[in-house]
Amino acid sequence: MVADxxxxxxxxxxxxxxxxxxxxxxxxxxxxxGLRDLVIRERVELEVELGAPVGFSLxxxxxxxxxxxxxxQPDSDTPVVLIGPASHNEELxxxxxxxxxxxxxxxxxxxxxxxxxIDAAGASEVTSALSLLRTAVRSRPAVGSDGGAPAGAGEPIxxxxxxxxxxxxxxxxxxxxxxxxxxxxxxRGIDGVALERRWRPVAERSxxxxxxxxxxxxxxxxxxxxxxxxxxxxFLPYSAFVASDDVDREGxxxxxxxxxxxxxxxxxxxxxxxxxAGARSGDVVLAVDGPVDPDELLATTGAERRTxxxxxxxxxxxxLPPGEVTVAVRNRAGHVFTWTETATxxxxxxxxxxxxxxxxxxxxxxxxxxPGNAWSDALDAAFSELAAAERLIVDVRGxxxxxxxxxxxxxxxxxxxPTTMGMIRFSVGxxxxxxxxxxxxxxxxxxxxxxxxxxxxxxxSYSATEDALxxxxxxxxxxxxxxxxxxxxxxxxxxxxxxxxVLNVSTALTFENSGRCVEGRGLxxxxxxxxxxxxxxxxxAVADTFW
Length: 547
Hints:
This protein is α/β, with parallel strands linked by helices. It contains 16 helices and 29 strands. 27% of the residues lie in helices and 24% in strands. The strands form 9 sheets. A 6-stranded mixed beta sheet has the order 2-1-5-7-6-8, covered by helices on one side. The chain has a 6-stranded mixed beta sheet with strand order 19-20-21-24-25-29. Strand 3 and strand 4 (69-70) form a beta hairpin. The longest helix is centred in the N-terminal third of the chain and has 16 residues, at 123-138.
């Protein structure tokens, strides 16, 4: 339930202390570097979770957050956070030996006096352990802390990532985690208590049926906040949207008109099997490896009215698991086209492509944000080959997000000096939001672009794409063309519910420097491009005029 009087008490483990030392894992592989970069870049989020400012050090050394690394160790009174994996954190291994703890079999957090451990078997799983921190802190009264004792008083508190014991606990987790985490009740005018009262009994009677849970969570109108299967997903290379005679919001629910809805194709790439079979934009999707239900997709997709049809359509183009599927569509003349193709882990052949337009303008298409050197090397190659161009168009239409570190690194390539990109507010866990914190950025150390650049975006430019673009429009050499982006601040936590099912919950609201909230409204544009043009091959030509 949305925060009650108990949750109003500041249960955060180090609330009010002057500083917390965070010891990060050492190691040079991509996963460890990516983990460190993520934690440091998202420092504000960690400070909100802990209730105090943080400084960072690498395992085996120490570094003040505002100064260079030193060999000084934290004062004995300074709380310490040890972040795994233990295989790359010698201080964490020493604690495990001292406390006779077993090796991590699954992600866990443990509060042991003035020390907090966040650990998992591998670097990729540590992010799951970080998601556990809010749950561990907010459920402290249920596991032995009275919520009013000093941090670390009493027995150690340990929480491992586990699925719920049964349907009643699944329903309770959904209610609790939304109440502890969701940041946009006030922004969207949603009565969280009323939403829970409506759906919780239905979910309990259904035995925590995933479709009921999805309808409940869809009432939050946030594509980041959803109940979803964890199975590997396969994506078809098409955008699609659910078109309805009347799609409306009734309080917390989406209603598709009884007159009927249809899933229609949006962008159909010329290189795709669908194009070869005769499919075109506007065709009605009849089947994706079986019938698809547009009304069910609308009812179980959380998004604002402006974007819900597109996000529901994206789900229609997603299959579980990846593999060969048969697709059938009907065009306006009534002809049916059927083809078979393979749904893969990404809906595009290459995440980055580039070329020189006939006008001489450089053009870069960014379809997704991926971790690792291969992605950043491709971006370096693009900037190198287009170095002679006097101006650049970056096309992020349809880019629904991906790796946050990659997106922020991309953003930094357009900076010439340290810059405040916007503001961010995280939920605290007691029904309130932390004060606004600036989002600061510094120029990238690699290839950069500080000549005129225009970004082409649409309502499917979402999540990490919006993080990549936030604040760039304020720069003198940058313009945004298209329509406002999808409006997803995100930073979602992931909470396991049952085998194969998780709950994702947004934690933050981001803001442009103007004060405009990105959540729900999207990033503003300088030059509006009509949707019909934006979804066509003419959009790039429109962006490439009147420089």
